[in-house]
Amino acid sequence: MIWLALLASTAATASEAPIAAPQVASKAEPTQDFAAVEAAVRLLRSQDYEKQMEEAALRSANASFDTMFEHYAQEGSALPADLVDEIRLVILNNTRDLVEEMKKTALNDAAAIYARYFTAAEINELMALQSHPVMKKVQQVTRRMMPELMQIGLKTAAARQVELKAKIAETIESWQARQPNESDKS
Q1: Who's near 16: CB < 8 A, 6+ residues apart?
Q2: Fewer CB within 10 Å: C terminus or N terminus of the chain?
Q3: CA 170, 175, 181, 184 torsion: positive or negative?
Q4: Closest Cα to residue 71, out of 147, 5, 161, 7?
Q5: How far is residue 42's CA from residue 46's CA, in Å, rounded to a whole number?
Q6: CB 66 within 8 A of CB 88
Q7: How many CA atoms lie within 13 A of 20 on its CB side?
Q8: Contact 126, 42 (CB under 8 A)
Q9: Crossing angle, helix 49-74 and helix 133-178, to 10 degrees?
Q10: CB–CB of 112/29 below 8 Å?
Q11: pLDDT, tens only, 40-95
């Protein structure tokens, strides 16, 4: 019944997995306002969208990784430091590869989404607002704030892992008790 233990372990960490996002077309829909899409592309480029996307993905991967391994260490399941470093490298390289793949369409996908919610004039106004000193500060500070803000959810999720693992183990135990014994099958 080792698979049940693996299932419990996998299910417990599944809550840490991101929710699947809806599929987004990589090209603007024919009914979209192409002027708005073009304005959104300019807006996103002015914000260095692709660089921000990569930085956010790496911060998120690092924060999730740190929280996960801190949780394991607290449970007494710490891995050797050199193995943790190797796993971190695999995860970060995977994240970088993911971002490179996303870069093929992400800018246009994001611009199409903006164009569904804003007109070209509104997007141009957003660009103008970006030159305001307070908005520039928000853009700079937000990048530094994000890891701290992400920790709020990650710490809460990590704190619930023990309870979740216990509930999953209880569910498996209950399910096993309801299963017919091997001797009953003959």
Answers
A1: 64, 68, 157
A2: C
A3: positive
A4: 161
A5: 6
A6: no
A7: 2
A8: no
A9: 40
A10: yes
A11: 999 999 888 999 899 888 988 888 888 888 877 777 877 788 888 888 898 899 99
Q: Is the distance from CB of 49 to CB of 106 less than 8 angstroms? A: yes
Per-residue pLDDT band for 30 (boundaries 50, 70, 90) equals low
CA distance 64 to 57: 10
Between 21 and 132, where is the model more confident?
132
CA distances from 163 to 9, 131, 153, 172 (A): 13, 48, 16, 14
Asked whether the beta carbons of 113 and 71 are under 8 A apart, the reply is no
- Predicted confidence band at 128 (pLDDT cuts at 50, 70, 90)? very high
Residue with the bigger pLDDT between 121 and 139: it is 121
The tokens of 169 are what? 């183990």
**3-state SS, residue 54:** helix
Tokens of 72: 């394991």
DSSP summary character for residue 19: P
- From residue 48, give the alpha-carbon distance in Å to each of 78, 112, 119: 38, 17, 21
pLDDT tens-place string over residues 156-173: 777 777 887 888 888 988
